[in-house]
Each structure stands twice: as structure tokens, then as C-alpha cells.
Write a structure and sequence with these properties.
The protein is α+β, with helices and mostly antiparallel strands. The chain is built from seven helices and ten strands. A hairpin with a 6-residue loop joins strand 1 (2-7) and strand 2 (14-19). The N and C termini lie far apart (66 Å).
């Protein structure tokens, strides 16, 4: 028995024929350029005639490994193209939705300010719901836009002094650090190969998470790094509420939340952005944690050259 399939890689028609020999036996795969002409009879019912026709044209069977490699390369290209299209869609959708949503949020807030207390209690509540929903949607779209930008804008690969980056993050977050009473300590950090803007975002998201999910005890955060081959492994530790073991992989997925929005704000995108940044440079990110004992977020980044003064 033989089955036929036609593929069109890079605008070139190829004819793939699978000759089955029976249960437990590997089939023979034939591959040839196809000009669109008629095949001899119906290959599904006349495999002998088809086999004779292929042999007469001196078309040899494909090597299984070569065929598998060709198929794998084609599927990887299709997947890569699909991912690029999805990222482009997310970027365009997020970007184009911001302006009309800003108008909705602005005028909903104006209505609430002007007519609060002048209508019945239900009207005030409805306007509050509408305003809150519009503002949350704005934040969600902004987060999606940030996620779609990672990698899309071609992050630079240069040697960056992580000490300087962390100091800038701590200055930018000084208000929330002061309000939370957090004590943040860090060792001398190395240089890594990455984009400075992405590093700022990475440290800000992880330290911001530690502040957000703090426990009742005074918050303590530490940042350290140690060499691991050609990479540096960073650890950001806290004594916060911790994460259950069965949730530790899911937290890096987009929109994954472990708590109600009334308990902790956010859209569940921050850690997905961290994961995308780290993986863009060939690193990995994970968490070690137990409920009530705090968390250790760890990630690896390729080592950079020691930074000279002003190189960061």
C-alpha cells in the first residue's frame, strides 16, 4: 500500500510517497520533484504499478534520517514563523488598543467625578466598576506590550555591570522599598552579557515581587551571584509568604496568578517577562520555595567582560 502527500517547501513542490510493507516493518519513503502531472493510476489501489513507475524513473527511496531531518527543519521553521506572527499580533493589538482604552478610562473617571453622589447608590457603584475595569485593562495591555517587546526589538548583547544596574533599580524603587520597610543587601555583582534595559526590567520585576508578596515579619531581600561555567547564577532571596511546590513552574506562565486580585494586585505577566528575558540570552530561571519560608528566585546569564568605569 502507498499513500501520497504533497508539500511545498520554499515554493518548490515535492511529492512524498509512503510505501508500507506490513505491520512491524518500517515503510519506504520516496521523495521527488512534482510537476503536477498525473500519476499512473490511483496509488492507493495500485502500489505495484506506482512502484514500477518510480523505479523506471530511477527515483530512489529517501534515507529515513535525511527525511526526518528535513521534516524537522520544516516544522521548526513553521513554528518559528508562527511565533513571530503571534508576537507581531500581540504587539500590534496591544499598541493599537491603548489609545481608545485611554479615552474610555478618562471619560469614565470624569463621569464618576462629576456625578458621584448626584445619582442613586447603584449608579455610583456601576461607575466605580467601570472605572476600575478600564484601569485594569490599561495595565494589562501595557504588560502585554512589554512582554511582546522582549526579543522583538533586538536586545543588545554587551557586557553590563550588574552592580550599577541594581543600584539604579533600587533608586527607582526607593519609595516602595521605604514604604514596605524592606532591608535589601547585595554582594558585589559581576558583569554579564545582556541588554541593559532588559536587566533593569528583570531585577525590578523580581525585587518588586519580593516586596509585593511579603509576610508580616520585617522584609529582608538579598541579591547574590556565583560563577557557573560560562554563566553567572543569580539568587534573589526573600523571607516572604513563599510558594507551594506544585505552583513553582506555573508562575512563569502568562496570566498565571496564585492569589485573588483583591489580595495582591497585578496581571500575572511579570515573571513571564523575566523568563523571556533570561531565555533570550540562553539562560534559565526557576524558584526554590516553601510556603511560609520565603523564596529564592534563581536565574543564569552569560558572563561578560569585567566592566571598566563608565562601561555600564
Amino acid at each position: 500500500m502507498a499513500t501520497v502527500g504533497i508539500s511545498n517547501p520554499k515554493s518548490r513542490l515535492r511529492l512524498l510517497l509512503l510505501e508500507e510493507h506490513g505491520i512491524g516493518e518500517d515503510p519506504t519513503v520516496w521523495e521527488m520533484d512534482y510537476d503536477g502531472g498525473a500519476l499512473p493510476g490511483d496509488p492507493r489501489h495500485t502500489p505495484e504499478k506506482l512502484h514500477k513507475w518510480l523505479t523506471s524513473k530511477k527515483i530512489c527511496p529517501c534515507e529515513p534520517r535525511k527525511m526526518a531531518e528535513t521534516d524537522l527543519a520544516r516544522k521548526m521553521e513553521e513554528l518559528s514563523r508562527s511565533n513571530r506572527e503571534l508576537e507581531q499580533f500581540a504587539y500590534v493589538a496591544s499598541h493599537d488598543l491603548r489609545e481608545p482604552l485611554r479615552m474610555v478610562a478618562t471619560y469614565t473617571q470624569l463621569l464618576a467625578e462629576r456625578y458621584r453622589g448626584k445619582l442613586d447608590r447603584n449608579a455610583d457603584q456601576y461607575m466605580e466598576y467601570a472605572t476600575d475595569g478600564a484601569l485594569r485593562m490599561q495595565a494589562l495591555i501595557q504588560d502585554l506590550l512589554e512582554l511582546s517587546r522582549v526579543g522583538r526589538e533586538g536586545g543588545k548583547k554587551q557586557s553590563i555591570d550588574c552592580d550599577a544596574v541594581l543600584e539604579e533599580v533600587l533608586r527607582d524603587m526607593s519609595s516602595s522599598i521605604r514604604d514596605s520597610g524592606a532591608i535589601i543587601q547585595h554582594e558585589k555583582l559581576p558583569a554579564v552579557t545582556a541588554d541593559r534595559c532588559y536587566l533593569l526590567q528583570l531585577f525590578q520585576n523580581l525585587i518588586g515581587n519580593a516586596i509585593k508578596f511579603r509576610a508580616k515579619a520585617p522584609l529582608e531581600i538579598s541579591v547574590a551571584a556565583e560563577a557557573e561555567g560560562k554563566y553567572w547564577r543569580f539568587t534573589i532571596s526573600d523571607n516572604g509568604i513563599g510558594i507551594a511546590p506544585d505552583c513553582q513552574e506555573n508562575i512563569f506562565t502568562v496570566f498565571q496568578r496564585l492569589h485573588a486580585r483583591t489580595e495582591y494586585p497585578g496581571n500575572g505577566i511579570g515573571l513571564a517577562i523575566c523568563k523571556k528575558i533570561v531565555e533570550q540570552y540562553g539562560g534559565k530561571i526557576w524558584v526554590d520555595s516553601k510556603p511560609g519560608t520565603g523564596s529564592q528566585f534563581k536565574f543564569t546569564l552569560p558572563a561578560g567582560q569585567p566592566c571598566e568605569q563608565g562601561a555600564s
